[in-house]
């Protein structure tokens, strides 16, 4: 049943260089789950979750101010699009027409280019009565112009963040329509740390996937390979640090984990994509998604040059990403599920984060 203490509050987070006000909305479900998000990039600036003793802690990495988010950062808490992950050479051909995207990750395009969705100004408003009974929600809207960052077609995107008022869950619902054929792959780029501090190497991770995508030196997939007998087998819970420095070529290439896992799942509906546990605090997060894959990134490229919201230096392994999505480079790999969106179609995707504690 609904918790009457649930609420949504807002405050001014800062101002863009052109004077536009960036608002931070905070959703509190009344059960200990509290999420804050801003217009700029749809960024989740904080996510407070109780531990086994009921003590609240922020489990996502963030930055101290809007000025920090306006500067370079590794997609902390952002909505990523138009195309989450990498496209080889920043090139793809759609219906016989070649398209060139900006190269912002070596020789490739990453997360939509130099000015992807995580750098854009989104409209945010509360959803009256939530998006369903027993929820509080905000809705974010952005229209991506035809040709933006080289992508064809105007795309109207709606993203909804909803907290349940009867259990500790955060759901993200994505919806998009295009006025001409394009490619689209949307995800969210939160860096989770269930301890709220330190590194994530002691977290235990489960990924129900028997295959993953090995990558080349540019982190572009080379097809599919079995996880069995490799450090990429997370079908049973495993501490992240247990094998991250194993003598495996794929770990060497990426500096740790930064790969796409193909989920063992039924083709429709929400299915388990990952389970993350932090035994000392007792916090547990399950990720369920309608997407076919999960990019697990172990924070390898955090180099200490940024300081988090609490002043801590963000170093390798300070947080990890569990990005539900379609496969990287799908527009160039015909054996991968299609990411083409046509004008007569509606893109729809959901990811649910369920929080709890170990016994």
Largest sheet: 9 strands, antiparallel
How many helices in DSSP terms? 2
Oligomer: single chain
| Euclidean distance between termini CA atoms | 24 Å
Give the total of beta strands.
29
Structural class: mainly beta
Helix amount, in percent?
A: under 10%
Mean pLDDT: 96
Which overall shape is indicated by the principal axes computed on the Cα atoms? globular
* Count of spatially separate domains: 1
Query: What CATH architecture do you see?
Result: Distorted Sandwich
Strand content: 35-45%
Under the CATH scheme, which class? Mainly Beta
CATH topology (fold) name: Beta-galactosidase, Chain A, domain 5
For the largest beta sheet, what order do the strands appear in spatially?
A: 11-12-13-14-29-23-22-17-20
Query: What value does the Rg take, in angstroms?
Result: 19 Å
Uncertain stretches: none
Structural write-up:
It is a single chain. With 359 residues, the chain is mainly beta. It has a single domain (7-357), classed as Beta-galactosidase, Chain A, domain 5 (Distorted Sandwich), CATH 2.70.98. Helices cover 3% and strands 41% of the residues. The chain has 2 helices and 29 strands. The protein has helices at 66-70, 249-254; strands at residues 7-15, 21-28, 34-38, 44-50, 56-58, 78-80, 86-87, 91-94, 97-100, 109-110, 123-126, 135-144, 155-164, 169-178, 182-183, 187-189, 204-206, 211-213, 225-226, 238-239, 258-262, 271-278, 283-289, 293-297, 303-307, 313-315, 321-325, 340-341, 347-357. The strands form 8 sheets. A 9-stranded antiparallel beta sheet has the order 11-12-13-14-29-23-22-17-20, with no helix packed on it. A hairpin with a 5-residue loop joins strand 3 and strand 4. It is globular. The model has no long low-confidence stretch (mean pLDDT 96).
């Amino acid at each position: 049943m609904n918790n009457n203490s649930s609420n949504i509050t807002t405050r001014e987070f800062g101002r863009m260089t052109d004077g536009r006000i960036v608002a931070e909305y905070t959703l509190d479900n009344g059960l200990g789950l509290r999420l804050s998000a801003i217009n700029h990039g749809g960024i989740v600036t904080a996510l407070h979750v109780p531990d086994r003793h009921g003590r609240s802690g922020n489990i996502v990495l963030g930055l101290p101010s809007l000025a920090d988010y306006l500067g370079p950062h590794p997609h902390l808490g952002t909505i990523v699009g138009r195309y989450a992950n990498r496209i080889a050479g920043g090139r793809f051909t759609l219906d016989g027409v070649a398209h060139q995207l900006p190269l912002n990750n070596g020789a490739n395009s990453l997360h939509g280019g130099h000015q992807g969705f995580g750098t854009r100004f989104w409209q945010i408003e509360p959803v009256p009565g939530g998006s369903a009974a027993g929820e509080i929600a905000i809705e974010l809207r952005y229209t991506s112009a035809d040709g933006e960052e080289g992508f064809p077609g105007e795309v109207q995107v709606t993203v909804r963040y909803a907290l349940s008022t009867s259990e500790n869950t955060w759901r993200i619902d994505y919806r998009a329509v295009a006025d001409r054929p394009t490619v689209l792959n949307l995800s969210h780029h939160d860096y989770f740390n269930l301890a709220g501090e330190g590194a994530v190497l002691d977290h235990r991770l489960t990924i129900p996937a028997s295959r993953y995508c090995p990558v080349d030196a540019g982190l572009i997939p080379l097809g599919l390979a079995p996880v069995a007998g490799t450090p990429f087998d997370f079908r049973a819970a495993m501490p992240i640090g247990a094998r991250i420095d194993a003598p495996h070529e794929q770990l060497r290439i990426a500096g740790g984990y930064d790969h796409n896992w193909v989920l063992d799942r039924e083709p429709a509906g929400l299915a388990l994509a990952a389970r993350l546990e932090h035994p000392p605090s007792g916090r547990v997060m399950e990720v369920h998604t309608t997407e076919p894959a999960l990019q697990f990134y172990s924070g390898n490229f955090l180099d200490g040059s940024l300081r988090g919201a609490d002043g801590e230096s963000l170093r390798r392994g300070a947080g990890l990403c569990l990005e539900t999505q379609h496969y990287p480079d799908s527009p160039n790999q015909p054996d991968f599920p299609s990411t083409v969106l046509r004008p007569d179609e509606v893109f729809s995707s959901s990811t649910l984060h369920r929080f709890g504690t170990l016994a």
